[in-house]
Amino acid sequence: MIRLAGLVLPALFLTTAAFAQQADQQALKGAAAFGDWRADRPGVRRLIKPEDLPKPYVTKSASNSAGLAERPAGAKPRLPPGFSAELVASGIDNPRVVRVAPNGDLFVADSEANQIRVYRLGEGSARPVKDGIFAGNLNQPYGIAFYPPGNDPQWVYVANSDSIVRFAYRKGDLKAAGDPETVVDNIPSNHHWTRDIVFSPDGKTLYLSVGSGSNAAEDMGKAPQGGLAAWATSKPLGAAWGSEDGRADVLAFDPDGKNGRIVATGLRNCSGMTVQPATGALWCVVNERDALGDNVPSEYATVVKQGAFYGWPWYYIGSNEDPRHKGERPDLAGKATIPDVLMQAHSAPLNIAFYDGKNFPREYQGDAFVALHGSWNRGNRTGYKVVRLLFRDGRPTGEYEDFITGFVISNGEVWGRPVGVAVASDGALIVSEDGNGTIWRVTYGGARS
């Protein structure tokens, strides 16, 4: 049963001086940036550069998942001064991606329940005045997109683990009026199943992320049928083969699902995509590979460039060769694109949203929020938070800052695992987490600088 709440949690207030002090926060760099959840708090900044990465196997590979606990009474996300969080809903089976319809309704992928939920909030409130199941009988739905882009979409697209479908839509619909139409089928769905979708600003291109079918292409084989040379000359740079053919990629289609093509390769698991409002560039956040050590390789957020190769499985973060594939692809040495923002290894970034609302202080305009689901392959856990990527004049500085923490109870337990981030029509930040199945509305109410 879904429990809805309109309880307004106490807000803290921010002075101009305090905000200035926060803005001057020095980023942790080098080895100092490789901390864990115990050092996390809103305002802590990190800057990780490619040259900061340790060598593989400096530490042993850990299996260290956190236990999930019930949300303690009164527990709430921890935020910077001046911000507050209100509970929108709880008890949801598996809330994942959140997308905001042009009329302000929140569409939420309840992935393990195989359905899309919708919530209509009251004006200036976290309390839903209407809610419902927009569509069911799906297959691990994740990505959601409205088409055409703009104020009057005619379709809601949903990315299942194995297909993209669309539902006819009219503004304000709380339930799909008809059956889904399959737009793209036969998407490989084993292992990494989180398929995100987003349209280009002009609506002409539908982007789809397809994660790898393994950790590091263990079963792909050393060479494709017909030989490596022939493959490399006939396929996009860095394209994988065998069981990984068409995976670890960002793909593109026309809105009707035709004209499928590869945009970029070597993205092990791009679990979240969005378009940067200021530039129109496609961004994704990537879960990198495991079992090389606590702090290698970095997770990342990056612009997805046409024709680019991001390394997987042979290289990572530029020209660092994965020792499990040593000497296999010398032809790709020096050809992997270095991502734009590096984050701590094993943090598991799942979604990204650029802030273009008017509720937060102007310092947040143009920055991006990323939900970090949390680590399992690290001796000291990291993640379980929402971070803010800092931008200047539309370009990332490389720094990121803890924005929402407080989901960790102890070294062994967490109550929240952030997944979805979205900017509501009133400028609030909407955050989902699938540990206790909650959705939160974050607003700012302090003094502005």
Automatic annotation (TrEMBL):
Domain Pyrroloquinoline quinone-dependent pyranose dehydrogenase beta-propeller as annotated: residue spans: 78-293, 335-443
Signal peptide region: 1-20
Lineage per the UniProt record: Bacteria, Pseudomonadati, Pseudomonadota, Alphaproteobacteria, Hyphomicrobiales
Sorted UniProt keywords: Signal
Disordered: region residues: 55-77
InterPro entries the record matches: 6-blade_b-propeller_TolB-like, Beta-prop_PDH, Quinoprot_gluc/sorb_DH_b-prop
Coiled-coil annotated spans: none
Protein name, entry field: Glucose/arabinose dehydrogenase, beta-propeller fold
Superkingdom as given in the UniProt entry: Bacteria
